[in-house]
Amino acid sequence: MENSPHDPQKTPQEWSKHCESASGSIRRPKLPLSPPSTVKKSSQKPLNSVPRPKKLLPELQKCSSRARKPRLKYRPEPNTVFDLELYVSGARNSPRCNESNAQFLRYALQYSKRTIVIAGAGVSTDAGIPDFRSSDGLFSTLRGPGVSSGKDLFDYNVVYSNAEMGLRFNRMITQLHAKCQEVSPTRFHQMVNSIAQEGRLRRLYTQNIDALEDQTSHLQSKIPLEKPFPTTIQLHGSIKHMSCNKCSKIYHLDPQLFKSHDHHVDRDIVPLCPQCAEFESVRAIAGMRSQGIGKLRPRVVLYNEIHPEGDSIGNVVLQDLKGKPDCLIIVGTTLKIPGVRAMCKQFARQVHDSRGIVLWVNTELPAKNLEDFVECIDMTVVGDCQNIPVMLE
Ligand SMILES: [Zn+2]
Predict the structure, then answer these.
(1) Cα separation of 229 and 220, whole Å?
(2) Three-class SS state of 110
(3) How many domains is the chain built from?
(4) What residues form DSSP beta bridges with 115?
């Protein structure tokens, strides 16, 4: 007896042979290209489709960057001042710390999906790192004979102008480096890290050189700056690295190399690059012409020098502007640096054009000369930024 089509004995290969021989002898009726309308379509989903729940539990929504953003029901008048210190201390009825404005601030931090943070020294002072401009900041404490302001020690034209200034600069760098080695990220850093962990942070631009972000899980920077761009952009470099001005090699900063005592002679003040020195000795053995040895500098950008990574940072900013950020947080900075101020203006306009939220968070109100873009600020949050995570709790 011939095997029936349902014969379980046949292997798939035998079946295909069977069908080939059958098609040679039997003429099949022509089938229509699509099934007639009376045939019910299979309701079975393809195997590779991912099941998507129609509703997510609120707990899951919180940690998913694709979670639906609730509609913003209240937007304060432009440049409304919110007193964070008063609010955290329990006051609720003052016009400067009412509950609606607190909700607006929470909304910006908890639901924005493409947040840009532009940070200054104010986010790190709580870790014990001095800022620049306050009464006990570096510009005051570094003042001394021959230094009218500590700002001089961050001026390229000054720090390498003579041996005495060079020694002072080295002293300041080694002390700051030691300080940065022993501190940890602040609560504010951890809050921004959580936003990044939830996939809602587009970028953190920091003017700080303390590299505290590198101690967090999701705010890593990258040196040198290249694609794919890291989450954190160190606008003014990092105290933890040094680089050669000739071969551009980047090293971890070794404070031992930066002599700071008065008995050190001139040639010790700016250390030499080991890589260049090695190449130079090889050239000498080979009887080749000397090309000189580069000098090592802390990888921080000083006043009056061209930013070595200015073009790359410009590219990151352009990319982020195109990405339509929906929230800008300018925090812990008075925006005294013109380049950073211009960048903030660009982001503020872009965010506002897309009906996003612009926040200014600092212990003081924006200066008068920032008025031309203050109109883009939705809320000026006055107080210590470390109290924002406290408020969210
Ligand atoms: Zn070198």
Answers:
(1) 10
(2) helix
(3) 2
(4) 201, 327
Please, which pLDDT band fits residue 281 given cuts at 50, 70 and 90? very high
Whether residue 236 lies in the annotated active site: yes
CB 174 within 8 A of CB 258: yes
pLDDT of residue 168: 85
Residue 13 lies in a domain: no
Give all strands (DSSP E) within the chain, no chain letters. Answer: 80-83, 115-119, 201-206, 232-234, 237-244, 250-252, 296-300, 327-331, 357-362, 379-382
Q: For the chain, how many residues are written?
A: 393
The Å distance, Cα 295 to ligand 1 centre, comes to 7
Question: In CATH, what number is assigned to the domain containing residue 279?
Answer: 3.30.1600.10
Q: Which residues are annotated as a binding site for Zn(2+)?
A: 244, 247, 273, 276
Rounded to the nearest angstrom, the distance between the alpha carbon of 278 and the centre of ligand 1 is 9
List all residues 6 or more positions away from 107 whose beta carbon is below 8 Å from its beta carbon: 70, 72, 357
**How far apart are the CA of 307 and the centre of ligand 1, in A?**
19
Q: CA 207, CA 118: separation in Å to the nearest integer?
A: 8
Q: What is the pLDDT of residues 44-93, one digit of tens each?
A: 555 555 556 566 555 555 555 556 789 998 999 888 999 999 999 988 87
From the candidates 189, 236, 241, 352, give the one annotated as an active-site residue: 236
The pair of structure tokens assigned to 317 is 């900013």
